[in-house]
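Take a record.
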Amino acid sequence: MFIKINRLSVQRLRFHSKGFGSLILLASMLLSTSAWAQNILLLDFDVRKLSASKVELKINFDAPPPVPTAFVLKSPDRVLVDMWGVENGSSKQQVDIHLEELRSIELVQVKGRLRLVANLNSISNYSSYAEGNSLFIVLDANELVGVDSGQEVGDESAPVMARISDEPLIKRTKVQGIDFERAENGIGRVKIKLSDGKAGIEVIEEGSNVLVNLTGALLSDQLNNRLDVQDFNTPVMFIDTFSQGQNAGILIKPNAKPYQFKSYQVGRELIVDFWPKKRASRSAKTNKAKAKRKAFTGEKIDLNFQNVSIRSVLQIIAEVAQKNLVVDDSVAGTITLRLQGVPWDQALDLVLKTRGLDKRLVGNVLLVAPAEKLAERERIELEGQKQVEELLPIETDFIQVNYRKSSEMKARLEEASLISKRGFALADDATNVLMVRETEKQLSVIRNTLTKFDVAVSQIMIEAKLVVATNDISKELGVRWGLGYSDDKFGIGGGAEGSVGSVTGTAPLAIDLGVTAQSALRLGYISQNGVQLGAEISALSSTGDAEIVSQPKVITTNGQTAEIESGQELPYVVVNDGTPTIEFKDVVLSLKVTPQITPGDRVALELELTQDSVGSVLPNGEVSINKNFLKTSVIVKDNDTIVLGGVYRNEITNSIAKTPVLGDLPMIGALFRQTRKSETKNELLIFITPKLIRESLNVN
């Protein structure tokens, strides 16, 4: 087995396998190991003969070696070892060995990897392991590797794959199914179901695609096709499956948008997840990083095991976590898993959940046992603690309450269920003392709780200012004139009530379209034959400005509602069942506020402001009420003033009174019209200013 542990110094990692199965196991390791070995230099290598039939090849690097990908070719017999992310740092490219088992060694540098070719005289068995910065390969000619009888010797295009077991190749791992589903948060999940866990697995990213290599796996013709999954709206578009010699491959093609992926194996199922790579804001990245650190903070590790003892996996995780480990005797069995770049604590949770286990961390000791067994053990411990608490002596303590009422503190303790059935609490508001009878342990809890509640509360002054500004402009222009004539036989004159005239005389009023004015001009004329004419032109222009400022103030403690109100009550007659009664309605200026101090000397306010005023007299004789009301929630910095709201109203009125037809005539139509123009502006502004009263703040 090979385990890669990121940023962890490993003294000795070994590979053991019988036959060429070890090579296939090496080929099944994770691609992340290649990335881990980036820029590693091969310094040198040497060969020595261990016995008559054994030869050891030692390859030295400047860092711990990566996991290689290896396979064997026939005719001529040779072993090819690809080491990803390794460069040839030696001057050697081909070395003749001239041994019975090994003829020569060649080093070929290709893009992204270094290939080592060991030219054999005959097929040999081997074992391999890594130690420090060296990789060892031991060839043993005593045992030969079996070859599938269906394979023609000398066919170089068909590699002889190393096996993990002694089963014939015809019984190799089969790909039983390939499924796709859309998981939570738009994750595209590719599920590859295998017949067993023996196949070598390699998940790599090639360009804009992700390739899953299944070494030694068999793919049926029914699965050798393309799967279109664009309708699922995930980063995955197509899934192509194909066979390549003795291996199977799955090519996953994402869309053009940035994506991320991870692969893991549980049992016989290989899962590859894809999700969109989103650009988050700085605050979002910080929150995400905090949440991630809070969930799993362990060192990241890669695990690739097939039917390994679960106790061995737990021991490896404990070594990575640098924890002492205690495993219950009932923990047994094997597990197959493939985890890549997973924190050790997350890997531990996955292992425990798959086997119905649970853990407890006591100091630096990690205890692992079946979940039911741990729960039963803790239940027994809790029952024992409960019995001990029931036998503890009861003590009496008198606690002085300084800033709050003792009865209020008693209610808080009872709400928090801090008074047990054996104890009780008694409050005396006269002395503000709280008497409590409890065990010593519970008394300590009660004292600590009271110190959090019994503190000096900050005081806040809230000042509101309501400004009402009114501006009136009105203009009126009108005319009144009369006409009269009389002789011995008949007479004619205006039919309106009254008369109009001047110092020369008066005439019966015919047109009355004048205005009530303090300024007017009158004209009159009386002829010798009895004709009388009289006219009056009147005009009125008025302006008015008014400003009303209301400024209520109130002081309250933090979190407590305060209310102030000033005004009068107006009587109203209400008739119920024919019986008149008098009721009163409030015409007030009021302020209702609940402040809450927040960090940074800011104050959150729940506000209700009301400004009423007496309005005009209605036709029924009652008086109307003008109302202004505001309800809002704001956060204001200490001693800052903000405008909570405002109402602006501009009312313009134009009216014309005229005599039909005559008032529409040009020029002379003005003698038959009355015009009135008025404009009224009303503006309401509301200001609020909170002020912390610093003298009341408690240093604690």
